[in-house]
């Protein structure tokens, strides 16, 4: 391959450390968490926009945002040990969560209580079993919740519960909560919403009777293990039949919304416009045809508000914002990049509020007083994030951030202030309060000065960003860490880190956390560590992000192989010692690279990898691949299980045995395929651990295993 295909541009970030500096070790990273920065939790902003609350042990404490001074103790628990809390709209009541039991990534059940700040009365939500998603209406008088797959509500000060639905059955019917695949892929677990005046409750009903079951096993020192069975629709299989319903508290009647469309479709969002209008998002199974419907709560009839089609797929988001003048805000890839638009209530585009060759990443909201809206965008480059504002009437966008790196904002409820979380590749996060109107720094909450000074004591490698042009003349972003004592006349092994999945990035100018310190430790041991964002990753427009459509993993794998070949050609790299590591989609790619380029990679570590796309869920897989019957070639060509016999290098396969997301089935089937071909490999399986593989000494054990594998085989 000709070198003219490639560009390598180095941007030096830190200077080479001296020989007297200390080395990093694994116990410091994964047991002592010595390099873990001080974090500022998400803010519970009060409605006045000038205060926020924080849970401290058994108390909820209020602070002044501008000074950081404690102003009051809002609540002090005496009889319960609560883990989280939410305020009513008027802040007169607080919902307290206790005895929380995690179900999946976003779902849980708990015992909830309501604290009345005026009467100082603590009332249990229910005494008949743990509840899910206990939520007050806007006036704080009634509370709704899910129990036993049924929806309930009650007056806060009454013991009498009103059961809205009665057909809920485990692994059959769910009312007011979502099934597993909606929770994981549409990022929603609660599936009911109070109307603005508290007169109605809209909810989703999932009939998952026909969905096939999956079982994973956990172990607890008992005579027999525990079998956990739940509904999990794999690619091409039957999904839940989802319907929308509206319960009227006055008439006690439930009306089904006439969603129409295809029988096999998704309802990923419901949102009230007012008490007489419910907006329902309808998405076809291919996820490339989206409709916003307005439903009449009285008869369930619907009219079309907005219809959007895409030749690839449409991402579901929460940016829909209804305005006072019969308009609404919507974000879309309509012009090739993700931008913010204003539409009228006839679904016609009124104006485009952001424009340019960059993606809006996150919509923070609208200040209704000033008519200014705020958002995060990758306007400087795909590796950076800035905070911006623009007028609802249209006009130029204004940058609020002052430092290049990754900026993330949390705005107060009135948008008068915001907290900016900032970091870059070699600087841990800082948290600063700004006054929005003048964009003036008010105070620094935390700057992690202690950790910054501590890092100077260690033998940190030189971290640089670079650009790489692949054989298709597409420039990809990457970073590299070289040993602090790097000698261009020596040859070094290269250890590549990859995620590479749709809409994600590893190459960002932000603090990389614990993994970053592990990579620095490997650099101290003589490795060059590299990561490159392949095609299909985020913040570079629709064409780049959706280029892998119907061929998920194909271009991504090729890009990573081309990166490895390029480094193999460098005079300072030992071409016989190139390895790759990834987790989840990254584990899939590391396996695919080793299977398809045995002549390039000496070793690969795959943690929780998808091995066959047919074994992953409907919503995620079909979004990018359609169904196996529609795209059999795409599935077969890009599933590592079909190429297991080609693996020649050293391979470490890691999986959590209680992974409800990427099932242990993937690791078991890959192991079976390798054994059938008499191909040696190493494996590490973690009982009772999910996709994250954490808890206790688990991470320390895992990273010790991976470190030794790297040292022994690269």
Automatic annotation (TrEMBL):
Signal sequence bounds: 1-19
Keywords linked to the UniProt accession: Glycoprotein, Signal
Gene Ontology MF term list: dipeptidyl-peptidase activity; serine-type peptidase activity
Domain of life: Bacteria
Keyword Protein biosynthesis: no
Peptidase S9 prolyl oligopeptidase catalytic domain residues: 519-713
InterPro entries linked to this entry: AB_hydrolase_fold, Peptidase_S9_cat, Peptidase_S9B_N, Serine_Prot_S9B/DPPIV
Residue ranges of every copy of the Dipeptidylpeptidase IV N-terminal domain listed in the record: 88-429
GO terms (BP aspect): proteolysis
One Pfam family matching this protein: DPPIV_N
Family matches, as Gene3D superfamilies: alpha/beta hydrolase, Dipeptidylpeptidase IV, N-terminal domain
PANTHER family registered for this protein in UniProt: DIPEPTIDYL PEPTIDASE 9, PROTEASE FAMILY S9B,C DIPEPTIDYL-PEPTIDASE IV-RELATED
Protein name: Dipeptidyl peptidase IV
Higher taxonomy: Bacteria, Pseudomonadati, Bacteroidota, Saprospiria, Saprospirales
């Amino acid at each position: 391959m000709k070198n003219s295909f490639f560009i390598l541009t180095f941007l030096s970030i830190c200077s080479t450390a001296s020989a007297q500096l200390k080395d990093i070790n694994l116990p410091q990273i994964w047991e002592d968490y010595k390099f873990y920065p001080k974090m500022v939790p998400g803010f519970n902003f009060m409605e006045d926009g000038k205060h926020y609350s924080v849970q401290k042990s058994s108390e909820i404490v209020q602070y002044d945002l501008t000074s950081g001074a404690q102003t009051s103790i809002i609540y002090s628990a005496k009889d319960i040990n609560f883990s989280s809390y939410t305020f009513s709209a008027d802040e007169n009541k607080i919902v307290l969560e206790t005895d929380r039991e995690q179900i999946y990534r976003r779902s849980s059940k708990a015992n909830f209580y309501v604290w009345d700040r005026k009467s100082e009365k603590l009332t249990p939500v229910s005494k008949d079993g743990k509840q899910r998603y206990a939520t007050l209406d806007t006036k704080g008088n009634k509370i709704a919740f899910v129990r036993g797959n049924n929806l309930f509500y009650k007056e806060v000060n009454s013991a009498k519960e009103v059961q809205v639905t009665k057909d809920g059955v485990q692994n059959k019917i769910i009312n007011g909560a979502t099934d597993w695949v909606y929770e994981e892929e549409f990022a929603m677990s609660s599936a009911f919403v109070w109307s603005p005046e508290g007169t109605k409750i809209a909810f989703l009903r999932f009939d998952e009777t026909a969905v096939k079951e999956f079982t994973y096993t956990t172990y607890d020192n008992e005579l027999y293990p525990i079998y956990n069975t739940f509904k999990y629709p794999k690619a091409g299989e039957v999904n839940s039949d989802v319907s929308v319903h509206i319960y009227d508290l006055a008439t006690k009647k439930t009306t089904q919304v006439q969603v129409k469309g295809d029988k096999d479709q998704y309802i990923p969002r419901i949102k009230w416009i007012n008490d007489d209008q419910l907006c329902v998002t309808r998405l076809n199974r291919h996820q490339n045809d989206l409709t916003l419907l307005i439903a009449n709560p009285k008869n369930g009839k619907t009219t079309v508000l907005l219809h959007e089609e895409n030749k690839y797929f449409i991402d579901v988001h929460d940016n829909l914002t209804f305005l006072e003048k019969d308009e609404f805000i919507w974000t879309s890839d309509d012009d090739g990049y993700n931008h913010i638009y204003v539409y009228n209530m006839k679904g016609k585009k009124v104006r485009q509020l952001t424009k340019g060759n960059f993606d809006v990443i996150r919509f923070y909201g609208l200040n209704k007083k000033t008519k200014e809206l705020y958002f995060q965008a990758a306007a400087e480059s795909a590796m950076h994030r800035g905070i911006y504002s623009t007028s609802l009437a249209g006009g130029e966008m204004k940058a609020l951030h002052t430092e290049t790196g990754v900026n993330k904002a949390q705005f107060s409820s009135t948008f008068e202030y915001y907290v900016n979380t900032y970091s870059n590749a070699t600087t841990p996060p800082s948290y600063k309060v700004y006054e929005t109107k003048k964009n003036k720094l008010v105070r620094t909450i935390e700057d992690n000065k202690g950790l910054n000074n501590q890092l100077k004591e260690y033998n940190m490698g030189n971290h640089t960003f670079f650009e790489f042009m692949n054989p298709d003349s597409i420039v990809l972003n990457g970073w590299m860490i070289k040993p602090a004592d790097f000698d261009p006349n020596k040859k070094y092994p290269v250890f590549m880190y990859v995620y590479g999945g749709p809409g994600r990035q590893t190459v960002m100018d932000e603090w990389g956390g614990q993994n970053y310190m592990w990579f620095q430790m490997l650099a101290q041991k003589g490795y060059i560590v590299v990561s490159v964002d392949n095609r299909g990753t985020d913040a570079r427009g629709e064409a780049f992000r959706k280029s892998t459509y119907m061929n998920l993993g194909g271009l991504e794998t090729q890009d990573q192989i081309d990166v490895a070949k390029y480094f193999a050609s460098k005079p300072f790299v030992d071409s016989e010692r190139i390895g790759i590591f990834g987790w989840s989609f990254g584990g899939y790619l590391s396996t695919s690279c080793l299977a398809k380029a045995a002549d390039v990679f000496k070793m690969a570590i795959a943690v929780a990898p998808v091995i066959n796309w047919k074994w992953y869920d409907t919503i995620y897989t079909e979004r990018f691949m359609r169904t196996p019957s529609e795209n059999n070639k795409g599935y077969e060509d890009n599933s590592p299980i079909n190429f297991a016999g080609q693996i020649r290098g050293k391979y470490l396969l890691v999986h959590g045995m209680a992974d409800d997301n990427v099932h242990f089935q993937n690791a078991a089937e890959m192991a079976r395929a390798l054994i059938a071909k008499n191909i040696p490999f190493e494996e590490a399986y973690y009982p009772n651990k999910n996709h994250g593989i954490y808890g206790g000494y688990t991470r320390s054990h895992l990273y010790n295993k991976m470190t030794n594998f790297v040292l022994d085989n690269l």
